[in-house]
Fold this sequence. Notes:
The chain has helices at about 15-30, 45-50, 55-65, 85-95, 120-125, 165-180, 195-210, 220-230, 240-255, 295-305, 310-325, 345-355; strands at about 1-10, 35-40, 65-70, 100-110, 130-135, 145-150, 155, 185-190, 215-220, 235-240, 265, 275, 330, 340.
Amino acid sequence: xxxxxxxxxxxxxxxxxxxxxKVIERLNTDFNLSMELVHGLVGGSAYDETxxxxxxxxxxxxxxxxxxxxxxxxxxxWESLDRDLRPEKGLLGLRAEMDLFSNLRPAILYPQLAxxxxxxxxxxxxxxxxxxxxxxxxxxFGQPRGIIEKDGQMYGFNTATYYQxxxxxxxxxxxxxxxxxxxxxxSVDKANVLEIGxxxxxxxxxxxxxxxxxxxxxxxADNAAMQLVRAPKQFDVMVTxxxxxxxxxxxxxxxxxxxxxLPSASLNKNNYGMYEPIHGSAPDIxxxxxxxxxxxxxxxxxxxxxxxxxxxxxxxxxxxxxxxxDQGYRTKDIASKxxxxxxxxxxxxxxxxxxx
Length: 356
Ligand code: NAD
């Protein structure tokens, strides 16, 4: 029996997670999933109830569970709080506490939604790539850092750092994912101008020796950005540092043109994961039954695939989502002329009904 901590968070988080829970309940009753759910608070709603965006109770529950399903955090009402009390601290705190160093960001464009992309349909239709981003190291965390006075003027600085072990573990993560896909890894760096890039490249070459079945190529980050927009279907798995991954994964997400469709995972070395849609809490549409729940439902599929090795059930969820899209049902954010527009809750019910 797997135990999952459910953290709906703020804004549309509650509505979209409710749909994912409907799917889990159906899988539990009819498909022998046996997933136990534990409920907790995170983000602004946790702050309102407990004075902290990440209460100790949530941290304890995170340790007692096998993975986390998260909605989204944030909202206007908490924006003026001290940085340490803001909803986002809840997310960052969970990542740090559980050492979730491997961020998986798939960019999948369902053929039914190809017209939603700003790119030409033939460039993106059928796109299915995975960006593996190092999440807890690199220039975002490196020391020293600061803004100081120096040589009679102000001076700002950050430091990009990686230990060999940090690059190795994200490398292993990427290669193992590639083994379950098309067996190709493209490692992205700036080895032409940065020592840390040269180092990254060398360590990746070493990791690759453990995976003779997977092809490793390298690309400079600036070229990778161009190639993502020019011919994104050339990629299977891309692995990169925290900074480049932040930028490239948002770029890849936008290739699909539908923020409400994309799930993500952040994993630690034991394949414990936090699974969440890539979008935020969308306060502009919260409480109106307008949010697209599919990214959250697909986050459950990712959880089954990457943390619980239940590929068969994960495929059932993916197939159900495909079927509902094939039938022409869309939430407003992904609807075109002629589609059947449905609300958050009905979309959840449709996916539940399409599970076979
Ligand atoms: P957002 O992703 O919440 O919304 C951007 C736009 O996309 C909005 O117009 C929104 O209505 C739409 N949108 C997002 N998800 C949707 C869905 N499932 N269905 C339909 N439409 C959807 O980003 P934002 O507006 O920049 O941020 C809002 C809040 O969310 C902020 O407080 C921000 O800090 C927070 N945020 C949280 C996360 C997270 O929890 N991981 C990520 C990004 C932003």
